[in-house]
Sequence to fold (460 residues):
Amino acid sequence: MTEQNIPKKSALKGIFYAPWERTFDKILSPFEDFIHRETTSGLLLMGAAIIALILANSFMADTYLHVLHTHMGISVGSWEIDMSLHHWVNDGLMTLFFFVVGMELKREILVGELADLRQAALPIVAAIGGMVMPALIYLAVNHGGDAARGWGVPMATDIAFAVGVLVLLAGRVPKSLITFLVALAIADDLGAVLVIALFYTQQLALDWLAGSGLLVALLFFLNYVGVRRPLPYFAVTTLLWYALLQSGVHATLAGVLCAFAIPAKPKYDPRLFSVRVKELIGRFDSHHPEDANIMTNEKLHSVVQTLEHGVHSVQTPLQRLEHGLHLPVAFLVIPIFSLFNAGIPIAFGAMGETLSHPVTLGVMAGLVLGKFIGITGASWLALRFGLAQLPSNTRFSQIAAVSMLAGIGFTMSIFISELGFATQPEYLLMAKTGVLAASLLAGLVGFAWLWWLGRRADLA
Fold:
C-alpha cells in the first residue's frame, strides 16, 4: 500500500479519513440534503438528455431505437408479461420515482412547507395558477382534434432542473425563495399526479380496478396494525402495480399510493431513545478496556448493533425510505428515464415547421407564458386579498422571476406527453420538442432575470 492510499489521521485522535471522506462527513439538514441531491440530479438529467439527443441524431440512431423497442418479458407457467424496454422504464422503473414523489408529498403535508396553511397558501395558490393557465393556453392553440389531448403536458414543473438553476444563484437569492420554489414544485407534482390518475387513463377494466382498491386497502391496513418493515408494503405494491397495469389506470400511481401508506411515526419516542443511548454508551465504555478491537470484542459489537437498531427505530419508516431511495432515484432512475425519452430526432432543415406546429407552440407557450402568467397572477391575487404572505426577505419581482423558472417542465411533462400521444408519434415528437425548447428558454430567461435582480440588490 502506498503512502497516498493510507487514510490521513484527523486532528481528533482516533478518527481517520479516507480521500473525499471529509466531504461526506458534513452534517446537513434534511432540506439542505434535499436541495443538494436535487441540484446534482438536475445536472445528471441534463447530461442524460444531451446524450439521448446525440444518439438520436447520429449514426447510432437506429441502434438507439432498436434498444428502446427491444422486448423483455417475465413468464411463470402460462402467465406472462412482456413489454419493450421503453415501456419497462416508463411504466415500471418510474414507479420508484412516483414512490419518492409520494413520500415527499406526504412529508411536506405533515411537517413541511405545506403543513402550515398560512405558510403554504402562497405556493399552493401559485401552483394552481401555474397548472390552470398553461392548460388553457395550450387548449387555446389546440382547441380541437386529437392534439387537444396534450393539455396536461405544460402543467408540470421539473423540480430537479428548476431548483438546480436557482441554487446556482444561491448567493444572489434568499434561501426562502428556494423554499418557495420547492413547495410550489411539490404542490405542482401533486396536481400532475391527480391529472394523470383522472384524465390520462385507458379504458377501465372494472374487475382489475376493484382488485386494485382492495390492495390499496391492504396497504393502509398494514399501516394501521403497525407494520414498519418495508418488505410487506413492497410486496403488496408489486401486486398493485400489476393490477393497475391491467385496469387501465397508469401503473406508476402504485408508487404514490404505497408512499401514502408508509408509516410516518417512529417506534421509539425521542426521549426514550436518548435515555437508551446513554445507557448503551455506558455499556460500550465499560466493555472497551477488555479489547479495543470491535471485530474481536463480541460485547462491544453487540452494543453497537443494538445502538444501530435504536437509531432505525427512532426514525420513521417514511424518513428512512425517502432518504434511502432518493439517491438511486435521483442519480439512476431519472437519468435513465431521460436517456430513454429525450432522444428526439431533429430535422434542422424543417426546424421552422416543427416550431410552428400547433402542438409545439401550445407546449412552449403553456410552459413559458402560461407558467409565468399563472404563477405571477395567482400570487399577486393571493397577496392582494391577504390570503398569503411573501416569504421572508423576498420581493415580488423575485416571485415573478421564479415563475419563469417554473416553466422548466422536463421529467413530468415528457411523461405526460408519452401518455397523451402514445399512439400518435408525430404529436409526441412535437410535444417533446416543445418541452425541451421551452425548458431551455425558461431556464435561461429565469436565470438571467434572477441574476439581474441580485445584481441590483448588490448595487443598492
Observations:
- Residues 222 and 232 are 8 Å apart (CA to CA).
- Confidence is low (pLDDT under 50) at residues 1-11, 16-28.
- The chain has 18 helices and four strands.
- The chain has two domains: 34-200+250-265+316-459, 269-313.
